[in-house]
Amino acid sequence: xxxxxxxxxxxxxxxxxxxxxxxxxxxxxxxxxxxxxxxxxxxxxxxxxxxxxxxxxxxxxxxxxxxxxxxxxxxxxxxxxxxxxxxxxxxxxxxxxxxxxxxxxxxxxxxxxxxxxxxxxxxxxxxxxxxx
Length: 132
Hints:
Blueprint lengths: L1 H11 L19 H21 L7 H27 L5 H4 L3 H5 L1 E2 L7 E2 L7 H9 L1
Antiparallel strand pairs: 1-2
Helix pairs in contact: 2-3
Protein name: NineTeen Complex (NTC) component
Organism: Spiromyces aspiralis
């Protein structure tokens, strides 16, 4: 409670900026700098998720949920990249690193959905890979 009070005090005094929420739609952002910032924010969320999915204490359900969240962030990143290109920025789909392709496997039937870390070891996912 005291931490929240101190944080609000710092915001009122101008010592700290209030936390902003990422816009729901990337198309609402009309500034290239802001779109770049939100793209970097999404990439941070993806990185955190990929590192957390390797945690040995997670249950199968938590792994599935975390993998779904990572895929959601990947789709969101694509929306930000499209908006950046629309605003006259670089085309990250062409020049961006393909780091995530090495970490996640994609099934032919589920275009765009990837499995990361321990999600590849789940029984139903292993069966899908074996069917190939």
